[in-house]
Structures are given as structure tokens and as C-alpha cells.
């Protein structure tokens, strides 16, 4: 059953679309913001017919193309990011599962044994394999100068460590990084998995061996908005620094062997399976007391407690997932075209597109070019940051809300130009800064797009970076889905004929809808739901996040807690 069959479109202000990330397609390769293909398919089926052309000018991982192809439509995907084009192309291009498996075995036959040797160790006198190590920051006490291992503070909490020598306690940032130490090893042995303290024989090597094939060495410093002092303290001044010497060597051997495959489609698929583990294989995978929880999407954050994974084990599991993707979700040949380029200049004819479904950058929430850095470094092809539609104050290429709004306007004008007269455009958006919301509203209005429908999209908890952004900006865990139609230049505003709601009315309506579930929604989810109602009713402005919190207090509502930042 499609999303639109579950949730009729007749009453847009009352709808909330629930998204699931459990889809096997969705999970094969990470991306910073992804709309599950089931959500895209529901809108595609509502607003287009089989055989129609669907456009996504901010295509990201290509889920719009997957949804369109599996719904019997054609798709044109565009993105500025080489990483996005790489990921979307592999998701939407047909590939033989059997030939892919054979190509994987060829790579393993060439370098698999050597890579496996990097993770060999000994446990109780018997051979064992390191599946992962846990590493901890070593910090210096600013009061007495003694060193402390943050791993030893994990039960009390590492955000505010205490020096075991002098008792000094302060925020973690007050304790300078003095190094790192492997503290725990997870091993495969003949008798099964074993967890023990890390030993010297588990550590691999300190620097890559001589004669190593190509690996990315792009610089990483203050020119990048996501650079932080902690990177410098950990010795990370290039992309290579995000990896241990052992994992960098393993990835380099696998990457170069994969890149030498003579068949272009299989070569791309092999590299797709490797970029899919590039972040998990780095020093960015944060330790968690219960279980490994992955890297923080949309960031380049390196946790004080982190994993070093066995790259060969990671790749074996990932290639199995990619093989299932190709086998179970075959893409029709020629259904999807993927292009790298700016959304402000689409090489499409006027009035050639039947429907547009897209998920543009959300202002300051994610710096995509930085977030994609590890993928793009392995691809040796970086995003043109000058054309990136974001709001960013740090780094060497700052962009204001006005810059962002100008890029959105040019992009929306292109959407209107290529849409057929009766075509619709659905835009998924979220921001907690009213200025950013106003930028997208004005861009749509000035481009000649008129709001037809709005709904909230609940896609689960956000990543850490999605709660932070420009000036500490937070982002809701739910997005707003805006559907536009072509209007005469200058816009015609909202056409549903409803009365403009006051913010308190929209909040009470959202709370009333949520009451049926028996659970108090989070402030982030209410934020999207309230603003979907306001926009649907023809309001000129959204409710800011702080204003929502004030309104909730006035109404006596205590929202559920949104996801907290990591340690």
C-alpha cells in the first residue's frame, strides 16, 4: 500500500506521513538526508502517471529515482555532489548480482589474504582475528598535568571528567588531548567471539607500509566549516588522518584493486560497496555502552571513545548487502538518468517534466560538501563548494541566508521552467530559523510556484548535526512536505480556500491529532506538524522553534525529549 493510499490527500493540514528506515534499499549506503523510497513513491503515484518523467534536482542518494523506476516512471536526477551522483547512479542502474559477486571474489583473490593478515592476533596462545578495537582519548589535566584515560570515566560520564590524581573536574574541552590508547578488543576465535583488554599484538602498525597504492591525501583544516580543534589535537590534518594506518592501508588495497576492474559498471559497483564502509572504517565510529551505533551523520565528528573496525569483515558484509540490492530490486535499464551539476541550470527542455519530488539542503543544518568529504576523497572528485546551496559562517566560503535564498530561487525557477503546465512539485523541507523558512517561501513565490498542499513527514530521530546549525539552530525530527503547482509570476498564494490559522490554533490541532496515539510528541515533531498547518492555511510566516517552546509552556504541554547530543 502506498503512502497516498494510507493517507488521502484531501485534507492536507491533517496529514502526517510516517517514514520507515527499515527498507533494505534505504540502508545499503548511508547519506546525510534520505527520504525512504516508499514516501517518494506515494507522492509520485499521486501526482504522475506510469511512463511520466519525474525530476529531482537535489537528488542526494537517488531515492526519488529508485521510487520512480519501481513505480513505472522515468526519472532525471541531478546533484552538485560527486558522491551523491556516485551513490544515486549505483542505486538506480541495473547490475547483475552474479557478476558483482564474481567481481568481489576477484578482488578478494588478489588482496584479500594480505588484508586479512592486518587483523591477525593471538588470544591465549591461539590464533585470533581482531573484529574491532575500542580506542580512547588520553587527556591532560589542566590543573596538575597528569594524564587520564577517558575510558576510565565512561560510567560517570566523559563530558565532565575528573582527574584521578588531583580531583580537578571540568568540561572535557578543558582537558587537552595528549594521545589515544586502544582499551578493548573484540576478537573472533575458534571458540567464538571474545572481548578482552586490548594487547600490543592487536594493534597492527603505526604507519602505512612503503609502496602502498594510491589513497586520498586531501588537506583538512580551518578552510573547512566542519573543522574543529579536536581534529588538530588528534593529528587529523588530511583525509588520511581520519583512518588508522591499518584501516587506511586495507582500504587503499581494496580500492585500487576494485578501481582496476575492466568493466565500468562492475568497477562502479565495487567502489560503491567501498564508499558504503568508508565512514564506518574511519575513526569516526563512536563507541556506545550498549552496542555500536554508527557514525554521526551530517558531521565529521570524532568521538573521544571510538571503534577501529576490521575493514575486510566490514566489506564482506557490505558486499553481501549490495548483492542483495542488485538481486532483489532490479532497476529497469534506461529508466533513470543521473547528472552532476547545479540545480540552477538543468539541461532539460521547457515544460518537459511531469512531476518533481525533491529534498533541497536545509539552510545551515548540514554542510554537504564537508559531510561527503571522505566519500569524495576516495572518488578523487570534490564538490564545487561555490555553488552549494547552504548557510554557513565558518571556513573559507561563507554563505548568508541571502546567498542561500538566491540559489534556491534560481533552482525553483528552473523547476517551474521545466514543469508541464499542470505539473506539480513536492519539496521536503525543514528549518527552525524563520529567516531560512522565509528564504524558501520567497524563492517559491518569486519563481512562480503556488502552494497546493502541506504535510508533516516523521522520519525518526535526527543525527547530531541535524540538531545544530547556524547560530545553534535546531532541526525538528519531522520535516514538512510542501507541494506546489505552477502559478503566474509573482505567485497566487495558497489555493485551498481555508482560513489562516493562528499559531495557537495550529498547535492545538496538532496536539489533538497526536492525542490519538497515546504518546506525547516531541517538540521537533510538533514543530513540523504545526507549521504544515500554518502553511496550508495560507500563513505568510512559520512559527519559530523558540516561539513554539513558549507556546507549549503557555499551553501547559511538556513535549517528549528530542535526541541529545553525543558525548
Characterization of this structure:
Helix 9 (264-278) crosses helix 10 and helix 13 runs parallel beside helix 14. Mean pLDDT is 88; it is low at 1-14, 461-476, 490-496 and 562-567. The chain has 567 residues and is of the alpha/beta class. The protein has a domain at 3-94 and 331-500: Vaccinia Virus protein VP39 (Rossmann fold, 3-Layer(aba) Sandwich), CATH 3.40.50. The protein has helices spanning 3-6, 24-27, 37-47, 63-70, 82-92, 97-117, 229-233, 245-259, 264-278, 311-328, 368-371, 373-379, 401-418, 434-447, 503-515, 523-536, 545-554; strands at residues 16-18, 53-56, 74-79, 120-123, 126-140, 147-149, 177-189, 192-197, 305-309, 336-340, 353-358, 419-429, 449-458, 478-486.
Amino acid at each position: 500500500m502506498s503512502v497516498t493510499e494510507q493517507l488521502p490527500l484531501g485534507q492536507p493540514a491533517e496529514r502526517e506521513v510516517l517514514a520507515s528506515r527499515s527498507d533494505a534499499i534505504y540502508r545499503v549506503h548511508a547519506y546525510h538526508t534520505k527520504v525512504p523510497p516508499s514516501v517518494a513513491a506515494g507522492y509520485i503515484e499521486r501526482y504522475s502517471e506510469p511512463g511520466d518523467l519525474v525530476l529531482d534536482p537535489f537528488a542526494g542518494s537517488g531515492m526519488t529515482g529508485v521510487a520512480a523506476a519501481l513505480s513505472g516512471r522515468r526519472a532525471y536526477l541531478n546533484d552538485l555532489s560527486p558522491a551523491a551522483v556516485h551513490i544515486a547512479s549505483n542505486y538506480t542502474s541495473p547490475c547483475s548480482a552474479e557478476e558483482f559477486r564474481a567481481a568481489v571474489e576477484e578482488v578478494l583473490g588478489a588482496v584479500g589474504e594480505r588484508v586479512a593478515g592486518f587483523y591477525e592476533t593471538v588470544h591465549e596462545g591461539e590464533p585470533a582475528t581482531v573484529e574491532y578495537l575500542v580506542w580512547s582519548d588520553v587527556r591532560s589535566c589542566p590543573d596538575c598535568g597528569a594524564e587520564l584515560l577517558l575510558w576510565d570515566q565512561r560510567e560517570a560520564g566523559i563530558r565532565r571528567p575528573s582527574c584521578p590524581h588531583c580531583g580537578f573536574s571540568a568540561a572535557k574541552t578543558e582537558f587537552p588531548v595528549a594521545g589515544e590508547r586502544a582499551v578493548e578488543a573484540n576478537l573472533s576465535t575458534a571458540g567464538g567471539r571474545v572481548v578482552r583488554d586490548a594487547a600490543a599484538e592487536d594493534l597492527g602498525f603505526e604507519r602505512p607500509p612503503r609502496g602502498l597504492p594510491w589513497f586520498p591525501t586531501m588537506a583538512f583544516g580551518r578552510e573547512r566549516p566542519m573543522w574543529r580543534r579536536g581534529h588538530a589535537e588528534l593529528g587529523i590534518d588530511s583525509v588520511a588522518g581520519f583512518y588508522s594506518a591499518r584501516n587506511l592501508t586495507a582500504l587503499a588495497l581494496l580500492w585500487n584493486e576494485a578501481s582496476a576492474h575492466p568493466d565500468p559498471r562492475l568497477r562502479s559497483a565495487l567502489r560503491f560497496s567501498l564508499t558504503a564502509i568508508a565512514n564506518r572504517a574511519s575513526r569516526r565510529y563512536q563507541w556506545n555502552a550498549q552496542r555500536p551505533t554508527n557514525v554521526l551523520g551530517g558531521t565529521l565528528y570524532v568521538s573521544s571513545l571510538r571503534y577501529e573496525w576490521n575493514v575486510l569483515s566490514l566489506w564482506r558484509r557490505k558486499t553481501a548487502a549490495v548483492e542483495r540490492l542488485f538481486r532483489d530490486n532490479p532497476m529497469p535499464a534506461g529508466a533513470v538518468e543521473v547528472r552532476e551539476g547545479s540545480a540552477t541550470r538543468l539541461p532539460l527542455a521547457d515544460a518537459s517534466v511531469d512531476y518533481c519530488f525533491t529534498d533541497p539542503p536545509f539552510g545551515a543544518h548540514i554542510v554537504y560538501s564537508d559531510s561527503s568529504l571522505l566519500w569524495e576523497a576516495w572518488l578523487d572528485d570534490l564538490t564545487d563548494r561555490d555553488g552549494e546551496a547552504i548557510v554557513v559562517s565558518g571556513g573559507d566560503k561563507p554563505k548568508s541566508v541571502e546567498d542561500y535564498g538566491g540559489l534556491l530561487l534560481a533552482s525553483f525557477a528552473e523547476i517551474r521552467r521545466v514543469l508541464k503546465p499542470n505539473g506539480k512539485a513536492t519539496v521536503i523541507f525543514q528549518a527552525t530559523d524563520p529567516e531560512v523558512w522565509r528564504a524558501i517561501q520567497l524563492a517559491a513565490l518569486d519563481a512562480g510556484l503556488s502552494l497546493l498542499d502541506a504535510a508533516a513527514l516523521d522520519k525518526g530521530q535526527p543525527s547530531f548535526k541535524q540538531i545544530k546549525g547556524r547560530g545553534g539552530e535546531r532541526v525538528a525530527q519531522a520535516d514538512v512536505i510542501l507541494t506546489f503547482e505552477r502559478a503566474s509570476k509573482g505567485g497566487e498564494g495558497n489555493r485551498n480556500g481555508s482560513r489562516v490559522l493562528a499559531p495557537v490554533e495550529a498547535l492545538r490541532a496538532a496536539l489533538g491529532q497526536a492525542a490519538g496515539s497515546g504518546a506525547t510528541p516531541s517538540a521537533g515533531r510538533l514543530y513540523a506538524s504545526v507549521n504544515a498547518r500554518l502553511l496550508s492555511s495560507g500563513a505568510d510566516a512559520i512559527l519559530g522553534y523558540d516561539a513554539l517552546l513558549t507556546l507549549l509552556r503557555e499551553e501547559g504541554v511538556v513535549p517528549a525529549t528530542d535526541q541529545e547530543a553525543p558525548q
